[in-house]
Amino acid sequence: MSERTIASHFVRAAISGAQRNGYDCLALLRGLNIQPALLDEPKARIAPEQFARLIQQLWELLDDEYLGFGKYPSKRGTFAMMCHAIIHCRTLEKALSRGALFYSLFPEAPGIQISHEGDFACLTVDDSRLDDPEHFLVESLLVIWHRLGSWLIGQHIRLEQATFSYAKPEHEPQYKLLFPCPRHFNEPRISLHFHKRYLAMPLLQDERTLKHFLQHSPADLLARPDSGHSLNSQIRRLLGRDCSAWPDLEKVAQKLHMSAQTLRRHLREEGTSFQELKDNLRRDLAIYHLGRNEISIQLIAEQLGFSEPSAFHRAFKKWTGLTPGAYRSLEH
């Protein structure tokens, strides 16, 4: 669903490398209709299209796909060249291994490694060479490699576990979407674990589809980290945009061909709940409509299922730290 929004934390983190290198990002943000005041609100969120354009413009500004977080820049076009180097590989394992080898040719690049551990494959990122206090680049690398792998084989790679070498960050609740699986912190390494059967799968993409893919990636992979096949996305699609007609958990479970108990357990494993998913979808729909002037705040409140505008105001302020009116004024 296009209305999924991005937490303001990721905007602050994305521009921090450029700021540390002496760049003034205020004009860049305003040019993307991202008001700097929005970043002062920890719970504020922006549209995914804005975030994708921000990442692309930061790359252009810095000529660095590492966004200023590496010891040396990764010049624009490096990711695209890596994709061209792997697109003719026979299996996913060969493609990921060749991609990791490609980046190992660059001095001081963050190390990528693919390994087998019993029935599972492990994608590890070494961040020891990064100056990345907010972990933005290492999060981005994990997301990009996971989504790239899923795209190459034409199906979502289900994550079994994610581990991180650092303590649980303040923005950890956002990891539910980035890494929808059990997550462990203060571990020896930063890694994603998935079943090894995926590694033997053939690549379904070619140079023609790669050309289209590279028009928007990897920025689009970051802006829309969920490929649409996760349980979170399936439930959002089943709920739809008409909040007054949302099915209950039992009906959703039935449509997903599982029991309500199993659905609750899967959601719990991803660190979320059915109520939280509904609240997040309602929040994202509210932000989506407030970013457009087509309908009034009162009508938005009605469409979201609030009995009165004051209830919508309270809920929106709880979600974002701003009232709907204040949010709309910052957007325009």
Automatic annotation (TrEMBL):
GO terms for molecular function: DNA-binding transcription factor activity; transcription cis-regulatory region binding. Keywords: DNA-binding, Transcription, Transcription regulation. The keyword Amino-acid biosynthesis does not apply. One of its GO terms (cellular component) is cytosol. This is Transcriptional regulator, AraC family. Residues 233-330 form the HTH araC/xylS-type domain. It comes from the Bacteria.
